[in-house]
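Many introductory courses stop at the sequence. We go one step further.
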Amino acid sequence: MHRFLTTTLLAATSLAAFSAAANATTLQISVTHNGTTPLFITPLYTAFHNGDFDPVTIGETASVGLEDLAETGRFGPASDPDTIAAQRAREGGGGVPAPVFGNAGPGPVFSPGIGPGQVGGDAGSTIVEIADPLDDRFFTFLAMILPSNDTFIANLDPIEIFGLDGSFLGPKTIVVGGDNIFDAGTETNDLSVDGGAAFVQGADISAGGVEGGTVQQALGLDFGGGIDLAPPGSDPSLAPLATLSGFFDFTASDFNLLTIEITDVTPAPVPVPASGLLLLAGIGGLVTARRRSRV
């Protein structure tokens, strides 16, 4: 009798595990710099979570993790409690982090493209496995804008990727524009060499003045007469982007930085009903065999 119960439980457990695996989803996150502005972007931190991870609130003080990301571009590791990755782990359940790195440009950033008249810039993608869409229904992204003191991109509210039944609601295309650009309110905006802005040639990013404000929508960045982005002896192809000058208006209707695309690339599964019937038939056979042995 014990052997029968054990076999039955194993079969039932296998059926449940197979059903859960059938709900697993493989997604691809693709990011493209639209090349409409010469601003750079640090690697994009993205995460799937249960909806409780909501790091950006207008009018509130930035968390330690958000301040770090907005001023330096750092998002991890999750083992460091002062990072945005650790905050996601605390607030968003198990969650799935999926940072996206650029494939070109000067360093591990999303470059706007090199060369006069070039449209579109760096692109990158990553694959993420969602074991249980019901636990990771929502999506959040963050990255620092370069050069800046504490300007970053993000979505204000978590984006629903899976429905209440775990079904994928995509494909999703997210155009990151002025509505997604924020000032962390943690460091005074000073894009001079002495101002501590990240990615400015000769600047010390630890030298920025403390602002002590709150997270606000960013209206733009003012580079005045110009700042140097290309260090001496750098690749000559960087020359068209060596100097930024003037005011970049984030409120302009045609202003956009990135395009994020989320698509389902899950391999075709073995049909669940057929597999389930096979398992149930096996359990039925065990029951019949057990009854016959008693006769």
